[in-house]
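Researcher: Good morning. I'm working through a list of sequences from a screen, and I'd like to move beyond sequence-only analysis. For each chain I'm collecting a predicted structure so we can compare shapes side by side. This is the next one on the list. No need for commentary yet; just the structure.
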Amino acid sequence: MAQSDIGLIGLAVMGQNLVLNMNDHGYRVTVYNRTASKVAGFLEGGARGTQVVGAQSIEELVCSLKRPRRVMMMVKAGTPVDALITEITPYLDPGDIIIDGGNSNFHDSIRRTAELEEQGFYFIGTGISGGEEGARFGPSIMPGGSPKAWHAVKSIFQDIAAKVDNSVPCCDWVGEDGAGHFVKMVHNGIEYGDMQLISEAYHLMRDALKMNYKELHHTFAKWNDGVLDSYLIEITRDIMAYEDEQGRPLVEMILDAAGQKGTGRWTVNAALETGMPLTLITEAVQARSLSALKDERTAASKLLSGPKDLPPDVPGDIVDDIRQALYAAKIISYTQGYMLMRAAAAEYNWNLNYGGIALMWRGGCIIRSAFLGKIKHAYDSQPDLPNLLFDPYFKGEIEASQAAWRRVIAFAVQCGIPVPAMSSALAFYDGYRYERLPANLIQAQRDYFGAHTYERVDRPRGDFYHTNWTGSGGDVTSSTYDA
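Model: Good morning. Structure tokens for this chain:
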């Protein structure tokens, strides 16, 4: 019997669609699922007429594979991944490869890479974005792990990935151990930010400007033809026009309590661990948490008051102002995401290709947009670019949008409509461009009550001082601080 190119374990929708995608590109795949009926159902259903083969056990799956064996897992993150690795490894030989295609935490991928390499195996932790449709017809794929394994999976991954710019695959090697899953995590965090920004624009237009859904549909359609051209704006355009069976806008019938699977929180935690100010994505995560307090918010709406009327001086072209504010805040979101990746690369000794990451996100994934081409160009032109805001294009776009951005935030505050992502982005921008922030007072306070010391503007960086502020505190200091 012909041997398979790759084995895949886990036949939920994503797993099934990836298998069919691989089959379309000429790869023979062996599949296994703990529930045997899923294997039979897949072979008799979606995989009927393909060269996909089923296995009744993990041992049978491994034995059906060409060497080096490539076993891909599409299972729930966490303990199930570790348990499955423990089941697979007894049947592997040195040099064989285990691939985790789920949404695993990058810390787990760092650990798994080390553990499997110690046993003579290779590990790849790969982010996959694009949902069910992307998995079937071309996702964005972000692999990291054991560098020596890349050549053995490169052709499969790049063949099944989405293509942009004259058939360039939205897949390339990201970096060592947990780098692939880290980049996917940042992707998901940016996705949270993009969705929140779009929702804030929708909120302003719906409640403050009283635009109907036909007007909202046309507005998002117009925006999708400009710099905001993206998958999320595109589907928002379609959502605005979709009606239920009674002719009502379906989105109005959906409960305003957003769910989340945890990758946004992971992104925020990573920012805290590395000391990066990921303010916009943090606010997007918190906005979902606030939305989930539906019953409390319903009670509060009957008790707590806000502005009684809209401001009398509604800006003349406020809809275009909102578009510009959305775009400016989007630039900040990606700026912060890239700051986080740069900090993680330094922390974990990863050699990340920032322009390549933008290319990987250009197609197949949820945050795909024309905007990412500008990011790729920025890093191709200046690989050591310290911050996207230093790039001439993004600096110019922020400057061109800044007045509208500020008008929108002021308008939202006057209306009592929350725009946490848009406003936190502006606060970050103002803080980042400000040469002297009031943190000197914070350091004085810390030194006063805790003897934590401070640096001086008239002395070299790295020299620390303590003041006996009360005359009775003494000269003993606590510790220096991390800036």
